[in-house]
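Need a sequence for this fold. Nothing fancy.
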């Protein structure tokens, strides 16, 4: 049986426009995967049947609407099928977030234990965000270590793999609610909940946006939101409405040049900055709701 083929499309893209470009492909194609390089090159992998002259024209029209200095198409290439999961699994390694936490895929638990952290979190991410390999995930996890989670209720908006909520539970939180609009993330968080021997009562995972998944009367001690800056800005009042008095808030997914705008929006509605941390160009904010 002949191997099916894929097409790879490569772009030079600025950090600011990378999510916009990814969003376009996710909305218009059945994407097989993305590959990012540290030099700003983004490669998109599609089944060759997804790529047509009509879609090529549509892509060119979309790219023409973006600043040329921010996004540039560098070419396409037809490639033979390979076992992407096997290749990815061979490359991914356990991540030591701190002396208190290591995140590992299930197939490398033994090697992860050799890193000698207090907590071990098993995450098999599939296509979901939150493996500890991205700066924003690491920032949020480290920031959780500065908050007393014992006996607290957690809301994790854009839960992805469920890593943030589950780490709060490992640190003594009473229960967590994780929400995500993405079906992949929803299913993956459920799988990871089971891998870490957590019950639904401990970690309730819901698919949908904030207004459709969380009842108005549900309040939380700690809210986590590692999501896009635009969503953080649009949800600020809704997030506040689900916070207990003097609640703790961790925000990330914020580029350094957007941080002041996000911070100002939350300060305007009653939050006080406790801590601001940065890794490379990414920012996380720890805020507290003023009484």
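Here you go.
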């Amino acid at each position: 049986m002949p191997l099916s083929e894929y097409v790879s499309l490569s772009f030079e893209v600025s950090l600011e426009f990378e999510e916009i470009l990814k969003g376009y492909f996710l909305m218009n194609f059945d994407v097989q995967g993305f590959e990012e390089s540290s030099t700003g090159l983004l490669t998109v992998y599609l089944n060759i049947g997804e790529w047509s002259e009509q879609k090529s024209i549509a892509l060119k029209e979309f790219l023409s609407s973006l600043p040329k200095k921010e996004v540039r198409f560098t070419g396409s290439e037809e490639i033979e099928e390979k076992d992407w999961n096997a290749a990815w699994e061979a490359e991914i390694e356990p991540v030591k977030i701190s002396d208190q936490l290591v995140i590992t895929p299930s197939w490398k638990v033994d090697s992860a234990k050799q890193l000698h952290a207090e907590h071990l979190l098993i995450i098999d991410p599939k296509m979901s965000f939150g493996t500890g390999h991205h700066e924003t995930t690491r920032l949020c996890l480290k920031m959780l270590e500065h908050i007393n989670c014992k006996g607290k209720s957690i809301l994790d908006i854009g839960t992805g793999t469920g890593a943030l909520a589950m780490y709060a539970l490992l640190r003594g939180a009473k229960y967590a609610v994780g929400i995500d609009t993405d079906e992949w993330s929803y299913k993956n968080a459920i799988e990871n909940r089971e891998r870490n021997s957590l019950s639904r009562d401990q970690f309730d995972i819901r698919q949908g946006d904030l207004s459709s998944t969380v009842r108005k009367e549900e309040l939380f001690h700690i809210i986590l939101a590692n999501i896009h800056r635009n969503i953080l800005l649009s949800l600020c009042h809704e997030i506040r409405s689900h916070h207990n008095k003097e609640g703790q808030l961790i925000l990330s997914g914020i580029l350094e040049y957007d941080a002041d705008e996000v911070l100002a929006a939350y300060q305007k509605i009653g939050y006080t900055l406790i801590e601001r941390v940065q890794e490379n160009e990414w920012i996380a904010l720890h805020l507290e709701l003023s009484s």
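For context: The chain has a mean pLDDT of 89.
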